[in-house]
# Entry
Amino acid sequence: MTGDTQKDINGNNEAAMDEPRTLYIPEGVTKVVSLMPFSPKDDYERIVFPASVEEIPDDSLHVNTTVREVIFLSPHPGDYGTGLRYIGDNAFRDMSSLEKVILPPTLEEIGKHAFVNCFSLREINLPSSLLSIGAGAFRCCHSLESITLPENLRSLGCEALGCQSLKKMTIMCDIPLKAGDISGCYRLESIESPYYRLENGMVIHNGSGRLIWRMEDNASEVTIPEGVTEIGESAFEEQDMIKKITLPSTLREIGQKAFAYCSRLSAIGCCKAAVSKCDDNAFRYGSPKAVFPPSLRKIGRKAFTSCNGMRVLVLHEGIDSVGESAFFDCMGLESIRIGNPGIDMWNDAFAQCHSLFSVVLPEGMAKLPRGAFSSCSSLEKINLPSSLTKIGEDCFHGCHSLDVAVPEGASIGSRAFNSCRSIRIGGGARYFVKDGALYDSLEGSIVSVSRSCKVLSIPKGIQMMNPEVICCIGKETKCICIHDIRIDWRKFLNRVHIPMAIFPESMAEDIKKLYREKKLFMEDSMWHGSR
# Structure
């Protein structure tokens, strides 16, 4: 409220204290921003707010540590004001002695962390008028054993109910719960609700069959009950006691981070499951030895990143999408077989799988994305199908053990084969290999430099030098010979470390200046006339 209709308690307070250790806020006050004007001493145990109070602003009351009970009076016909509607962020934060809160039937919103760290809070009524509870609102309320989510609640923030002592939840609304909303409720014993149930320590939505969250325990084997169709986001995240999990035949989708950081998870029983989608980060930093069911169609972004227990990977013909970095950094992965030639593979899908030795690609595959197998340093065997039309940038960059034969007709991205052991290419008008380096005659540029390149002598007809290619060449290349070509040396600053470089006289002054300024690092430089 504004103008003459609003009364702010920052003015003088002359309200009498009717009972010992009880603070009464005067009738007519609409917003409480501090309790200091009402009490000369901070020793009261009970606060009573009149129906005229409509708002408790952010960070307003959290300084008091002696209050045990807070009461908001309900409005009656003829009362001044419409009753409390908003409790702000951090409003009662850290009130460690607070045990009981009585809220009026007018409250619509509880802000973020409103009651966080109220360690003694045992009782609070959430009225049916309540629409929203902010993130962390009741986090660390360690004495709260039961709570009711009213029928009109529409929004529940992350970790809103992170109460370790919570044993009973009554859920009267069909709000879409997530694991993060209730994570930390490890003592939950029962859920009373037409919408949710608690089964074997798992919170499950009755209508959709979505598994929201599982309470962590010491069990090493977990069986998900029949009827579950989806494992929700972070449902089992960081539950590192689990070694084996059995999926039901009704399962269709595994959500984001569902089993992320389950570091001991090595076995997944999914032979009966009809899973079609494995979402982003689903098993990230786990150790599953996965055999994908025939129903699987999509593997999400980083779904199996750093799953070091995986040795053999078979992507059957039904899998049509593999997300970005889906199998990135799977250190134990040794072989891959891809069945679907039309698979939609995203960038870095198998990058940095340092133990990867063999890859089988299907004939008919048209493209490989950027960085698909980059830094797979043990990769020796791969068949590049003649059907390939595009090999993306950095596709095999850093595959030090690979002798690669590039098919005709494919466009090749920059650095695609940098630091491979050797490069061979069939006949064709566009690309050619000279002394272990791959060139694009159409663009007049250098594409990749392999480890077999000892002296990089840029041939005539090549007019552009890609700094990103040269700066990534290996230590095997001992010398660069450059003729008069277009080059922006500023892009090479502090990046080139080559024992010897031979430049034309036309570049001498610019190069010598950068060398004296220690912006180029070359052990020796020689100059010759234009060729």
Observations:
- The longest helix spans residues 508-516.
- The CA atoms of residues 69 and 518 lie 71 Å apart.
- The two ends are 84 Å apart (CA to CA).
- The helical segments are 179-182, 467-470, 508-516.
